[in-house]
Specification:
- Helices cover 45% and strands 9% of the residues.
- By secondary structure, the protein is mainly alpha-helical.
- It has a domain of 61 residues.
- Strands 1-2 form a two-stranded antiparallel sheet.
- The protein is flat, with a radius of gyration of 14 Å.
- The chain starts with 7 loop residues before the first helix and ends in a 13-residue tail after the last strand.
Length: 91
Amino acid sequence: MADTTTGLAKELLDQGCSAVVASPWPLNASVPAYWLPAFMDAWSAGATVIEANFEGNKAVERALGKSPANRLALTVFGDPLATKRRETEPA
């Protein structure tokens, strides 16, 4: 009975990343081609990481069907409300 995330996502969070988007299981090779453009469009438009992830997962569902293995392929670990830093924001 674990009460923490394990693996690469946990290591990245432990090293200071505020959020990590990763798959909890091996992905069908076609998933990223549908997920990534939808995620990046939403992320670039100012969506939170959880909102952008939702858009990516919905794109996968439209393209590959309702199988949970595909449509829930990527999950947010860490801060779901993280947003893309704007160029005018200080580092």
